[in-house]
Design goal:
Distance between the termini of chain B: 21 Å
Number of strands of chain A: 2
Strand content of chain A: under 5%
Structural class of chain A: mainly alpha
Radius of gyration of chain A: 24 Å
Shape of chain B: flat
Mean pLDDT of chain A: 90
Strand order of the largest sheet of chain B: 2-5-1-6
Structural class of chain B: alpha+beta
Largest sheet of chain A: 2 strands, antiparallel
Largest sheet of chain B: 4 strands, antiparallel
Distance between the termini of chain A: 52 Å
Number of helices of chain A: 19
Helix content of chain A: 55-70%
Oligomer: heterodimer
Strand order of the largest sheet of chain A: 1-2
Chain lengths: 399, 138
């Protein structure tokens, strides 16, 4: 299958599923039917040519498949759902919002984040279970079970084809899932490879899709900008042996100017529109980094200020930790170490390798070689990522 | 998207509503009045939301003529249904955004006032209407 054809199918996947669920309900079974229709298209179109209306073709084939699957299910057991009361409890859905409704269904609060991610990648991203399992390095059977259970939960939760009433809150969950997909691709939590580009690309694709659906939502714009501005540094982020290269030491000529430009444009447009939110602030911080020609010439004072606004919005210990780094860069290692002392007691990061890595850096900056060596060692024993372990031990070794 | 909401009743149910003795509790005048008022409001709400395409009730099953053929000869059968067989009694065609919305509309019929023995077994079906021949042709 050509790349263009694959792109077309993946673009159409949520539209076809949306049309089916809107018309016939049965989110869980319809999702299987759409996957089968996509597979049929992938096999037939390269041979027989792309039909005049690819979307119409897929809807027709998926509808027939849905009919077959429902008949088989109903023959096996009468599908009887007990409902206290059938009500939509939401707003009417315009045709263009199908994909959005699907995202809300996939990121339903009754699901765990891992299930939300898997279901989103399959139902909205149009990836097969095999591809998702490979991306997350789990056996296919495990991923099949996860997706099947997730679909059953969505069905049992009584989710209807409608825009939920608590739309803003639910959108927060959707953004989080999309960002998790991107991050999973960006910093693998386990295993030898540091970056899994496909998941990062998938996160960006989903964020672009969301941005098209909700062009006036500043946080959606902020999330897309954040991803682009982060992804712009991808080529410089790892060395020739797959080792982690920290931002200060990255070859900035490798950064991708097109992504930086697009990200900066997006965040510049979103920020004045407001209301300001965590993704926009993180994107703004990433933009300040991306526009600096070196670590030293970075506008650290502005980054400190942005982190301080961000800290008012989120109680995230990682944000607090990044704030510490920015303060150290702006005002010196001692100011950073002093601030670090105020967050070390936070149980959420007290044992995290990143806290020890930051301490190690600050001690190194302040000239405390012995302290820095010990902190790098400590950090290395606390991370499961092999590239990060190698990086931290290498830093300790250089002192 | 168009959907059809169908309700069902047997000849026996029609007889009961008409005040005949069917061995079950009889409908009282206030039962009829309450049901009539409910249906009027139900239909008006659908008119106002712009979702009602059409609604009709059907005469008693006994007035049915079934056309078929037997041994190659055309046959007309009058009143082909058994007394207690539930057959189509009325329908609504609604045009709305989704199957779930059509189901929500139909679910309101569950609140139709009627004697308890009628309510206990009443049901409605919702079915998508085929928009074009393509949907049926394999």
């Amino acid at each position: 299958m050509t790349v263009a054809l694959e792109d077309l199918l993946r673009e159409l996947a949520p539209q076809v599923l949306g049309a089916l669920v809107r018309r016939y309900g049965h989110f869980d079974t319809a999702e299987d039917a759409v996957q089968e229709a996509l597979l049929a298209a992938a096999q037939q179109w390269p041979v027989e040519g792309v039909p005049d209306s690819p979307r119409g073709w897929l809807i027709t084939v998926a509808s027939r498949r849905l009919t077959d699957l429902l008949r088989r299910e109903q023959a096996r057991q009468q599908r009887e759902d007990r409902v206290a009361q059938w009500a939509l409890q939401g707003e009417p859905v315009a045709d263009a919002d199908d994909t959005l409704v699907l995202l809300f269904m996939c990121c339903h609060p009754s699901l765990s984040p891992a299930s939300q991610i898997a279901l989103t990648l399959r139902a909205v991203g149009g990836l097969t279970t095999t591809e998702i399992a490979r991306a997350f390095l789990v056996p296919e059977a495990t991923m099949t079970r996860r997706i099947t259970r997730a679909k059953a939960s969505v069905k049992d939760s009584g989710a209807r084809f409608t825009l939920p009433a608590d739309r803003e809150e639910r959108l927060g969950a959707v953004l989080k899932v999309v960002y998790l997909i991107f991050n999973e691709g960006y910093a693998s939590t386990a295993g030898p490879s540091l970056q899994r580009v496909e998941l990062a690309a998938e996160g960006i694709r989903l964020a672009r899709m969301l941005h098209r659906l909700l062009p006036d939502n500043s946080e959606v714009t902020g999330l897309l900008a954040l991803m682009l501005l982060t992804d712009a540094r991808r080529p410089a982020r790892t060395g020739p042996f797959g080792e982690l290269v920290p931002m200060a030491e990255q070859d900035r000529s490798l950064w991708i100017p097109g992504l930086i430009r697009e990200g900066v444009e997006l965040i510049t447009a979103a920020l004045p529109r407001g209301p300001v939110g965590p993704y926009q602030l993180q994107a703004a911080i990433a933009a300040v980094h991306d526009e600096a020609s070196s670590a030293e010439e970075t506008d650290w004072a502005q980054i400190v200020a942005l982190y301080e606004v961000l800290l008012q919005l989120t109680d995230n210990p990682m944000v607090a930790l990044n704030h510490v780094v920015a303060v150290a860069m702006a005002r010196g290692a001692d100011a950073g170490l002093e601030l670090l002392g105020t967050i070390e007691g936070d149980e959420r990061i007290a044992k995290d390798h990143r806290l020890f890595a930051v301490r190690a850096h600050l001690l190194e900056m302040s000239g405390d070689v012995t302290g820095a060596k010990a902190a790098y060692e400590e950090a290395a024993t606390r991370t499961t990522s092999l590239p990060q372990q190698r990086y931290l031990r290498a830093r300790a070794g250089k002192l | 998207m168009k959907y059809m909401i169908l309700t069902y009743a047997s000849q026996q149910d029609y007889d009961g509503m008409a005040g005949k003795d069917t061995g079950k509790p009889a409908w009282k005048p206030e039962d009829f009045a309450a049901m009539g008022a409910f249906m009027e409001k139900f239909n008006n709400d659908l008119l106002e939301s712009g979702e009602l395409v059409e609604t009709r009730g059907l005469a008693a099953p006994v007035h049915t003529r079934r056309l078929g053929s037997k041994d190659g000869v055309s046959v007309v059968t009058d009143g082909p249904y058994a007394e207690t067989q539930e057959v189509l009694a009325g329908y609504w065609i609604v045009e709305c955004e989704s199957f779930d919305r059509a189901t929500e509309i139909a679910a309101r019929l569950g609140d139709t006032p009627a004697p308890e023995f009628v309510r206990a077994t009443a049901y409605a079906d919702v079915r998508p209407i085929v928009e074009g021949r393509d949907e049926l042709v394999e």
